Amino acid sequence: xxxxxxxxxxxxxxxxxxxxxxxxxxxxxxxxxxxxxxxxxxxxxxxxxxxxxxxxxxxxxxxxxxxxxxxxxxxxxxxxxxxxxxxxxxxxxxxxxxxxxxxxxxxxxxxxxxxxxxxxxxxxxxxxxxxxxxxxxxxxxxxxxxxxxxxxxxxxxxxxxxxxxxxxxxxxxxxxxxxxxxxxxxx
Length: 187
Hints:
The protein has helices spanning 5-17, 33-42, 57-66, 82-89, 103-106, 121-133, 135-152, 155-170; strands spanning 24-27, 49-53, 69-72, 93-97, 114-116. By secondary structure, the protein is mostly helical. The longest helix is centred in the last third of the chain and has 18 residues, at 135-152.
């Protein structure tokens, strides 16, 4: 329930009502799957919304890489939300709930993704419409998201910073804050 797949269905209903052309794919499964399937049917969205079920990571990563953008509708129970890292690394323009742990650290709103107020379907819908209306901005956000992951949030940077941080800690320094953003920062 904390992933809030119903939010995406509500957005899809509004997009269809307003005449937008789109395709929404939901990946995964769980206790809400039947409820979500009923919502799709009730809102007459079967042509544009597809429940793809559970799939191997390599398969859903390929789907991410082909997608124009990615919706992350979880609330604060998501924790960090590593799927945000994966979507950004796949070059997706991301629209994500501000409640997710990684969002304040990874998404610079309007630069490498878009944030929306958790639970605010109107805000989420407006962000999605903006991306559909401005494909060039969608492309720009996706490129910037990819750059954020490959240039800052990567394994080499994390390893270098971990070694530097460990050295400072082992030397007895207190209150260490070496990095403002990225691996080994306050987040």
